[in-house]
Amino acid sequence: MENGILQLFLVFLTGFTITYIAIPSILEVAYKKKLFDVPDDRKVHTQQIPSLGGIGLFIGVILTFIVWSSASMYTSSYFKFLLTGYLILFFMGLKDDLVIMRTRYKFIIQFFVAGMLAYGGMRFMNLHGILGIHELPYWFSFAFSVIFIVGITNAFNLIDGIDGLAGGLGGINCLTLGALLYVFEQYDFANLAFAVGGSLLAFLRYNFSSYPNKIFMGDTGSLLLGLTVSVLAIAFVNLDTIAVAKEFRFVSPPIVVLGIMIIPIFDTIRVILVRLSKGKSPFTPDKNHIHHAFLAEGVSHKKASIILYVVNILLILTVLIFRSFNALLLGLLLLVVGTFLIQVLLFFRFRNRDHKMEGLKIKLDNLKQENQFVK
Description:
mainly alpha, 15 helices, 2 strands, about 75% helix, about 0% strand
């Protein structure tokens, strides 16, 4: 166990080191070749920033995973299909970051990758009693898994709108799932999770930096991140936690996964519903994401991301502490805690607005007094 924990630390450190070393070279090439994410009316940045950080993430994750994977992983269908999926989404994301691809082509490729992974065995096998469903028939397992993989992959792509948000939430999700998979002896998946976690920490060092050292992950990074989280989630849900560790059993792994990934899932569903209610395509870019609400209140990128990190961690702690609850009770608890946290955020949002209005009123009163004095 101690050697295993040491290995996880080394995996994390390897991913961090490779990505940390790779990104400065990527920045240099991006500036020389003028490969920037140009700001427009729907983006929140005002400078031309390179968006090729996903290349550094890809290099760090893939090399680390290959180096630290066990010998059995090399012969498994999971390994072959997952690496192939990573490569396909990498080149698709790179093309989209550089020249922009049409949405329908991107979805066709994503569904192909998801279908390939599901065919290779990366699919939900059991819903653990949710809606009375346990073992899944093949056709439902395949279709549901494909939709889940594509949905989570795009959820992280959509939430990548401010500095550190997708990278930080993805890191929290990966490390949480990685730790759980390690406890239940899924060591190769745990290695993958910690490789991504280490690479993301190195990326965040530059993502939170200022010009000219700043870089975005782009579609290349967010697609890799979303695919990884979806794969780790499926691996966890498929575990027979009672058989492996009775003292750390999970009655409803699917609800636990929902709690871990709830912010990108909730934000994506909410944004799509808002767009549809306005008669727009669900793929039409806008500024209705949860992070845009924080920015509208004058909260900085970093503070907005940290607030959502804290919310995510609190929800994760909720589902882990009450993991012995059945699906209905745990789902209701997650709903109650999530609603409470939203109300707390709204309270501080309106309080912040009131302070701003009060400050503006004071300034106006001072101006009136100055004008009267001049007269």
